[in-house]
Amino acid sequence: MTQDDRTVQHRRARTEVTVEDAAGRPLADAEVVVEQTGHAFGFGNIGFDFLPLVGGPAPEGADEVEAFGTAEGIGLETLADAYVGIFNQTTLPFYWGRYEPRRGHPDEARLRATAEWFVARGVTVKGHPLLWHTVQPAWHADLPLDEVEALQRARSRDLTAGFRGLIDVWDAINEAVIMPVFENGANRITDLAKERGRLGMIRMAFDEARAGNPDAVLLINDFDLSPAYERLLEEVLEAGVRIDAIGLQTHMHQGFRGEEAITAILDRFARFGLPLHMTETTLVSGHLMPPEIEDLNDYRIPEWPSTPEGEERQADEIVRHYRTLVGHPAVQVVNYWGLTDAGSWLGAPSGLLRADGSRKPAYEALRSLVREEWWHAPTTVRTDGEGRVAVEGFTGAYRVTAGDTAAAFPLRHDEPRSQVRLPA
Fold first, then answer.
1. Which fold has domain 42-373?
2. Which of 32, 60, 308, 365 could cross-link 315 (Cys pair, CB 3.0–4.6 Å)?
3. pTM for the whole structure
4. Which element (helix H / strand E) includes 350?
């Protein structure tokens, strides 16, 4: 066992599978093929690029709102092959300003079609975000606060209810640490937060989202990983607000923070006893953003190219970063923030594909981890006299095949024995 095997051992499980024929008889002393078909761990990315390719053009007025994630010139087949080659989760954009640029005309059909496209390919979909102080629609800039609150409550409730069964994971509220003090022009959500208080906004976000879908997984998500976020979480949990997972953003446009720094962050937030979702992760393959930039949004330049040396650095860092995250038992999901450099956030070369759709070394390095090193490849084994075979690997979905028939089974820590019956 290598050092890395030990750090991810908690992700692995062992089970004894009894294989039966269609009549329920043990398939004794027979050759079968065992293979993994899916990870229990969430390896995600954003699916913004797929909206125009699957769902069609954006609604009228949406182009007036700042956006990213439009991989123009790259075909759906190229993007799809790259996506399902690694990822089993996706995040789709529900920013209010682009989802409903004209009042009463939401972008529901396009989001639904794209979500269905992902689900059909075995990808879990998350909606982002239900409540945020940024990317707001211009039409509610002059509305009374009571009306803004009523609209926000209805939005959180209606989205989780309307997409229930298709999208059951949501960022209930985004970047609440700075919400009451954020200056963003005519922004009624910040005004509402000043009036109702930060805790009131968070309670509203979770209560309304859960009213729409009591079974949804609801996150609080933030880029501020300072003690201020910890204090906010303490306040929220003490107030009895139910949070299902803590979202942590790690946009590293100024360079990889390193294993020790990332582990220290994870340890600090793991103390709350909730799953950690690394919701927004980026590493650049060009020059690094200058360290004196405090707000990443302030760094906007005409061109930010990917370079050969930057791509090698990105590949090395993405392996180190993912090993650190998967090695920490509190982390449940890692969501990278951008499949391609085309239309990337802030124009940064942070994608895993170049702007022309070709794959960077970081893509291949991450795929090697997720689908090779951390994957149970098809393996031919022989059952014993009672039809049993031992299976060990990363937790997730598996399949056993005998001849022309196959059956699925889960590999989980709490199931030391499994029984599968092959179809007739």
1. TIM Barrel (3.20.20)
2. 365
3. 0.95
4. none
